[in-house]
Amino acid sequence: MMPTVCDSDAGALREAMIGELREMGAIRSDRVAEVFRAVPRHLFAPGAPLEAVYAATTSVVTKRDDYGVAISSVSAPELQAFMLEQAEIRPGMAVLEIGSGGYNAALLAELVGSEGTVTTVDIDPEVTGRASDLLGEAGYSRVNVVLADAEAGVAEYAPYDRIIVTAGAWDIPAVWVEQLADGGRIIVPLRMRGLIRSLALERDGNHLVSRSAMVCGFVKMQGAGAHQERMLLLRGTGIALRFDDGGPDDPNGLGGVLGSEPAEVWSGVTIGRAESFHTLQFWLATTLPGFCLLAVDAQREPALVAPGNRWFNLAAVDGDSFAYLVSRPVGEGTVEFGAHAFGPRASAVAEAMAEQVRVWNREQRKGPGPNFALWPMDTPEECLPDGLVIAKRYNRVTISWPTPASAATGQGVLHHLAE
């Protein structure tokens, strides 16, 4: 039985949420606004406070694992709206949603209409059971709810005009592409070097290219598609370096490195606190060979997570030394990027990171960001574009950048949504 809520309160909060999503650019079309208006979000988060349910940038966690890590949630409206805009769903389409929660499937059902079909699949029987119950109670029993490991897709209802993945994926199985209709599109939060972007992928010959990319965050994929990152502990369990792929050849090469005198280098590049720097993340990921993410326990290592550093987790290892990105206030609402480093060559690796910040500032800061593509593993090297190549389980992901001239004018092959 659904808990009773005041319809007027929920309606007012829903309208306020839609208005905020329009202001931030998450909702860009009337059709997407209308489906957010049509589906009562609170019906899919029973028991949660209405203010939390209708907060534009907040997800509602519906299940955690034994360690308290979220493994299922009703995603933040901001992310859902961005992905629906990326998908460009039309009435009559067949859509597969990978990762169930109920609410997003209801939005999809509104978009495809009575002539379309929506299938949602999840590996967790508790999640699919909950989604099926909530969809039925909300009037969306026509959605196909499937319990399965989505690594194999759902052949029963294929082909799909759109495949929308609502869990963080490390790679894209070939079967998803096989179940995609001609002219279809896959919207997937893909993890690359630890960074996640929601990509709108379409076929281009024998490979997939991204038509848009968006900064996002999702719970990790479970089942056969799960991928375990490599953790390198530097001091007990208080500081770790996280490698999504690769890592140091000698895991003991950084032993005792935090006992050395740190180096500090400032880049001279400043940015407003409200300005997005998401393209800098991928610039460092593609230009620093030992790129990784820094994980710090703030209680044990407060010096590394001072107020100016708490949002910066980008790092890079170079042999026996490593550096990580930091910032410092240099004026009202403005910070400067820099690098801190430890190890025998701390000054050199800090300078290398700071220099790449300067290069990004000169060549890519005002540009559209990198181009993403996925290629079959057997694609010859000479057929791949210039840039970083990441070997995954099924694909080779390429990340390439527009020329500095086109980046400076904001002209690129692909359109990238703002953070």
Q: Give the helix tally.
A: 10
- Ranges where pLDDT stays below 50 over 5 or more residues in a row are 410-419
Q: Please compute the radius of gyration using only Cα atoms.
A: 22 Å
H-E string = HHHEEHEHEHEEHEEEEEEHEEEEHEEEH
Write down the overall mean pLDDT: 88
Percentage of helical residues?
10-25%
Taking the sheet with the most strands, its summary is: 10 strands, mixed
The geometry reads as: globular
CATH classification class of the largest domain: Alpha Beta
Distance N to C terminus: 38 Å
What can you tell me about this protein's structure?
It is a single chain. The chain has 419 residues and is an alpha+beta fold. It has 2 domains: 7-225, Vaccinia Virus protein VP39 (Rossmann fold, 3-Layer(aba) Sandwich); 230-363. Helix content is 24%, strand content 31%. It is built from 10 helices and 19 strands. The chain has a 10-stranded mixed β-sheet. Strands 10-11-13-14-15-16-12 form a 7-stranded antiparallel β-sheet. Helix 5 links the parallel strand 3 and strand 4 (117-122). Helix 2 (30-38) packs across helix 5 and helix 8 packs across helix 9. The chain is globular, with a radius of gyration of 22 Å. Mean pLDDT is 88; it is low at 410-419.
